[in-house]
């Protein structure tokens, strides 16, 4: 084999969403507003679930975990994005890029698993109400949530270590964050094994929870159709409808990024898709889960009265 010398990469350059100064400034204002609203909305959910005893149920337990995960998700990506939009400087060190890639992937993987756990919780609550309290007691809640976090972070560590172990032939990343698939495009040498590992891990993390979600809601729909009470129909469908709205947006974009084969003919495709699951979904989660949720409304009113 012919020996090749690779320059040791110490930093990367993120191209960001645009290079036009005026558009960058407009995007800065929009993204900053989204970031602040996301932090506020998800923090509010955590505080309400923590202080209101009426919300100490499995559904809100998992929702509070989802809210905490979303805060970590946007904090690992949007501050870097905001700095780039404001200054136009997309330089990021290799260490920061690796850490950002890991945190982004870990939080996204955990969200996939948490959404599956939430669907399973709704399935037990609606289809098996008599055994629900026993099947989803405090110990099972903690085990399920801990498993989601542990598996998400462990699998992401494997993917990131595989992606960043390669020498790199370039430093310009056509993205606004250091996502492993975008970084891997700059890798030199044979990356086939890394891509197979990444595809296998992504398929497991994404498709297994998605299968659980679809199966759970299939059983829920069948159970709802056999309900005699119109009020029961409405409550079940309103509770699950908001969850499915988040699932459709999040999983649809994640699958197109990590599982569907990517084409080189559309170089900006990855970062446009990433906007949905890195920026839009974390904002929509607190909105969708609280907009028509009477329990959250009552908890918020009680807290306002105390204040």
Automatic annotation (TrEMBL):
The keyword Cell inner membrane does not apply. One of its GO terms (cellular component) is plasma membrane. The chain crosses the membrane at residues 25-51, 140-164, 196-221, 241-261, 273-291. The keyword 4Fe-4S does not apply. Gene3D superfamilies: Rhodopsin 7-helix transmembrane proteins (1.20.1070.10). The gene is LOC106549170. Keywords: Cell membrane, G-protein coupled receptor, Membrane, Olfaction, Receptor, Sensory transduction, Transducer, Transmembrane, Transmembrane helix. It is found in: Cell membrane. It comes from the Eukaryota. GO terms for molecular function: G protein-coupled receptor activity; olfactory receptor activity. This is Olfactory receptor. Pfam families: 7tm_4. It is a multi-pass membrane protein. Residues 41-289 form the G-protein coupled receptors family 1 profile domain. Belongs to the G-protein coupled receptor 1 family. The lineage of its organism: Eukaryota, Metazoa, Chordata, Craniata, Vertebrata.
């Amino acid at each position: 084999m012919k020996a090749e010398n690779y320059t040791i990469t110490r930093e990367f350059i993120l191209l960001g969403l645009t290079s036009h100064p005026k558009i960058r400034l407009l995007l800065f204002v929009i993204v900053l507003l989204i970031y602040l609203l996301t932090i506020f909305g998800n923090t509010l959910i955590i505080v309400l679930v923590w202080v209101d005893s009426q919300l100490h149920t499995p559904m809100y337990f998992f929702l509070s975990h989802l809210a905490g995960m979303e805060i970590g998700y946007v904090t690992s990506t949007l501050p870097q994005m905001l700095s780039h939009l404001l200054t136009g400087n997309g330089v990021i060190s290799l260490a920061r890029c690796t850490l950002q890639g890991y945190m982004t992937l870990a939080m996204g993987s955990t969200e996939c698993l948490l959404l599956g756990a939430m669907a399973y919780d709704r399935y037990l609550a609606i289809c098996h109400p008599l055994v629900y309290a026993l099947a989803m007691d405090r110990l099972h809640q903690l085990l399920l949530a801990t498993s989601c976090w542990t598996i998400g972070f462990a699998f992401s560590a494997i993917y990131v270590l595989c992606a960043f172990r390669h020498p790199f032939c370039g430093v310009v990343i056509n993205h606004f964050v250091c996502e492993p698939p975008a970084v891997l495009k700059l890798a030199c040498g044979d990356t086939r094994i890394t891509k197979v590992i990444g595809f296998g891990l992504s398929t497991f993390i994404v498709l297994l929870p998605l299968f659980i979600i679809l199966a759970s809601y299939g059983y829920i729909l069948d159970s709802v159709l056999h309900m005699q009470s119109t009020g029961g129909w409405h409550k079940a469908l309103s509770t699950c409808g908001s969850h499915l709205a988040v699932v459709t947006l999040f999983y649809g974009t994640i699958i197109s990024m990590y599982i569907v084969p990517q084409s080189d003919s559309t170089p900006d495709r990855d970062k446009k898709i990433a906007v949905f699951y890195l920026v839009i979904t974390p904002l929509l989660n607190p909105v969708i889960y609280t907009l028509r949720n009477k329990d959250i409304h009552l908890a918020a009113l009680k807290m306002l009265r105390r204040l």
